Amino acid sequence: MTDLTRIPAATIAAETSLADANRAMILRGVRLLLVTDSRHQVMGVISVADLLGEGPVRTAQERGTRVGELTVHSVMTPLERTEAVELGEVMRADVGHVLATLKRSGRQHALVLERCEGGRGLIRGIFSASQIARQLGEPQPVSTEIARNFAEIEAAISA
User: Fold this and answer.
1) d(Cα 31, Cα 26) in Å, to the nearest integer?
2) DSSP state of 6
3) Pairing of strands 84-86, 109-115
4) How many other β-carbons are positioned within 10 Å of the β-carbon of residue 122?
5) How far apart are CA 155 and CA 153, in angstroms?
6) Does the N terminus or the C terminus of the chain have fewer Cβ atoms within 10 A?
7) Strand, helix or coil at 123?
8) pTM for the predicted model, two decimal places
9) What span, in angstroms and rounded, lies between the C-alpha atoms of 17 and 113?
10) Measured distance CA(49)–CA(144) in Å, rounded
């Protein structure tokens, strides 16, 4: 797990363009960014799959705009729809449980939450399938996102 009490979270403002988000991921060497609002509160996540999948093309078509005019906010996964596990569960789990959780969700990442007083969750860490593979000396996992139509292929090529 990337422990966010030791390593600063990779974040991006919700109003950032998709092209700038892609560049930020490349520069930071990550495939997931926490999306923040103007008060620096986390409102969701954006992954490489969100940037290069069908989502931007579909959203642009629905809004009658171009993909280049979309922002991170328009294609991110909202926090309430993001795969997350409790820190207490993680402390009792082994790597196989973590990998099973990622596989079941069909995503490459999962947030780790620590419950604070009042029941509010604090994002404590992030699991990454590719990071786990690197640490285990295994081949890097192939993205769970497979192009299902021409629009997804076109989006991946133009990014």
Assistant:
1) 8
2) T
3) parallel
4) 13
5) 5
6) C
7) strand
8) 0.76
9) 28
10) 8
